[in-house]
Each structure stands twice: as C-alpha cells, then as structure tokens.
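re: ur question from yesterday

yeah so i grabbed the chain u mentioned. its 69 aa long if i counted rite. heres the sequnce exactly as i have it in my notes:
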Amino acid sequence: MSGQGSTGNVISAIASFIYPGLGQLCQGRIMAAAIFFFSATLLWLVLLGWIMHIWATVDAARYRNTYFA
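ran it thru and got these structure tokens back, copy pasting raw so excuse formatting
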C-alpha cells in the first residue's frame, strides 16, 4: 500500500470501523491488530469501546508502510 488515502488504506479503515483491529490485520500488522482487538473487547465491557473504534479507524487510514516506500 502506498500511503494515506490509498485504496488499501480506505478499505482497512472501513474494516477497522466494523471491528477494531480488522483493518490492521488486512495491512499485515498482526501485533497492532491484536492490541486493538483486545483493547476494544475489554473497553466494550465498560461501554468505552467506541474510543477504540475511532482510534483503530484513524490508525488504519493514516498507516504508511515505511519498509517498502
């Protein structure tokens, strides 16, 4: 994926909006996906999961692969 605004990042942002961590998983960022997934799950238990939804969506949309750029 080339960077912010690319089609891959938009799809990842939508996936993260569906469930936090899903977009990061689509981008191949396994550790970030696990952190967002478990954090959102725990926070939804105290009704604060919407915070992780927003954070994961923005993170997936702004991701820039610096390894291959």
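noticed a couple things. The CA atoms of residues 1 and 8 lie 6 Å apart. also The radius of gyration is 12 Å.
anyway ttyl
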